[in-house]
Amino acid sequence: MVFDPRRFDYPSRRNVVYAKKGMVATSQHLAAQAGLDMLKKGGNAVDAAIAASACLTVVEPTSNGVGGDAFAIVWTDGKLYGLNASGPAPGAISAEALRKAGYKEMPQTGWIPVTVPGAPSAWAALSKRFGRLPLTELLAPAIEYAAGGYPVSPTVADAWAKAYDMYKKTVKGEEFKYWFDTFAPSGRPPGPGETWRSPDLAGTLEKIAATGAEDFYRGELAQRIDDFSRKYRGYIRGEDLEQYSPEWVEPVKVNYRGYDVWELPPNGHGIVALMALNILKGFDPCDGDAALFCHRQIEAVKLAFADCFEYLSDPRYMDVSVEALLSEEYAAQRRKLIGRRALLPAAGTPSRGGTVYLAAADGEGSMVSFIQSNFRGFGSGLVVPSTGISLHNRGCSFTLDGAHVNCIAPGKKPYHTIIPGFLTREGKPIGPFGVMGAFMQPQGHVQVIVNTLDYKRNPQDALDAPRWQWVEGKKVYIEPQFPEPLADALRGFGHEVLRHENIASFGRGQIIWRMEDGTLAGGTEPRADGAAAAW
């Protein structure tokens, strides 16, 4: 039977949103509306996604920015396309040099974790290949909000305050003053409802829009990044930006309960979700024991993470293939390890060879799953002077262990946590889904898919359902609203279950499903200031 998201069997905090002509679901309502406006102007789902994502760099700078990375899965004309717009480490950096400088691990702030930003290239590449409207029109809402200001939403204000407090305590050096000048111009972060603006960021977005992002990689903006890096002994250079281009890649999948679940291949860790689902599909979720199936989900995620922490990196450096990690044989091998007691996860032996998420769909059949990030909050703490560009810290996912597959090297892409997801059945699109939040992301993907396909929950119910998060070893965090009887049952399986008050750590997602008659059904994250704007 084809899944029907009209079915309700879980008490939702919000109602599902339905539409016929188009929908854009994001974690911030102004960005969702910006995307929907493009659909009303004759644009398609790709146009809507670009407008919303650019707008998010302004209205939710606590999670993403022009100086971050992006990934996308696009369904159009009966085919899926994948875009990897993550950037590599600079050519001047190396693990050996960092070890000699006294570093034992990758720092989270400053120049060392700054890799080449890919987000602007994603907007340009998607627009050029699939878009209808000019990039100048798509970025106009973001430019308007940056130049004229907007009232900061509550969840963003809370994250802003936490980032400000963290930077005040941890960052030292003149190079960080530009972050405070940009994001705390009054000597403090903006509160909920207060207006924040950045004319510098508006100017940067105008240059990106007018040149199809060329200025960012080969023009004035690239030169400003180079100058800033040289002045403060950074590693990234103009030639790193000039040589960069995003990659079109083939999405990868596993079949779960008759549906194909799609992710992008490494260097992103979408295959963690696929490996976990491949293990889980060998268990019956309908045996009436919800605690046992929840235990098995946690164990499957732990095993998948153990493998990816061991083997995943820039695909040019991996000696284990994605096909081997996603094979039925390997899933069966890993499934045998799951019993009725919590395991300490360990990698197996396969055959060798701060983030925002949005979903967009139009009335003609195109759909987009898009995610971009500065990684940890605002990223590196560095803002390029006179540009408003907050540089990400994606390189802190590298290791300095020379024997590890994910060791930093010149021109190498790091293990990446941001992952867009997509669901199809028998070659037809069901739709985009995603849950942002670093290492919570594949765990969120698994829980959303289980809620949708095993528990038959509609998009909003699937997002509202209380979440768990495996942290390390046998430690599992649960949300404040997670049922205590289920938590006790998990403890009985040997898990160290801890109730965690910070709901932001459990990810924030969006879903749009297309039904048989073409009606769109959308859900938006209750843990954020999200909206599913519909037409």
Number of helices: 19
- Show unreliable segments: 1-10
> How many DSSP E strands?
21
- Averaged pLDDT: 93
Beta-strand content bin: 15-25%
In short:
With 535 residues, this protein is of the alpha+beta class. The chain has helices spanning 29-40, 45-59, 95-100, 119-130, 135-138, 140-148, 154-170, 177-183, 199-211, 214-218, 220-231, 238-242, 270-280, 290-311, 322-325, 328-335, 441-454, 459-464, 484-492; strands at residues 17-19, 22-26, 69-76, 79-85, 150-151, 195-196, 247-249, 252-256, 259-263, 355-362, 367-373, 382-384, 389-391, 421-425, 428-436, 468-472, 475-478, 496-499, 508-514, 520-524, 531-534. It has one domain.
Key descriptive features of the protein:
7-stranded antiparallel beta sheet, 535 residues, disordered N terminus, alpha+beta
Mind sketching the topology for me?
Blueprint: E1 17-19, E2 22-26, H1 29-40, H2 45-59, E3 69-76, E4 79-85, H3 95-100, H4 119-130, H5 135-138, H6 140-148, E5 150-151, H7 154-170, H8 177-183, E6 195-196, H9 199-211, H10 214-218, H11 220-231, H12 238-242, E7 247-249, E8 252-256, E9 259-263, H13 270-280, H14 290-311, H15 322-325, H16 328-335, E10 355-362, E11 367-373, E12 382-384, E13 389-391, E14 421-425, E15 428-436, H17 441-454, H18 459-464, E16 468-472, E17 475-478, H19 484-492, E18 496-499, E19 508-514, E20 520-524, E21 531-534
Parallel strand pairs: 17-18
Antiparallel strand pairs: 1-20, 2-10, 2-21, 3-4, 3-11, 4-7, 5-6, 8-9, 9-14, 10-11, 12-13, 14-15, 15-19, 16-17, 19-20
Helix pairs in contact: 1-2, 2-4, 2-6, 6-9, 13-14, 13-16, 13-17, 14-19
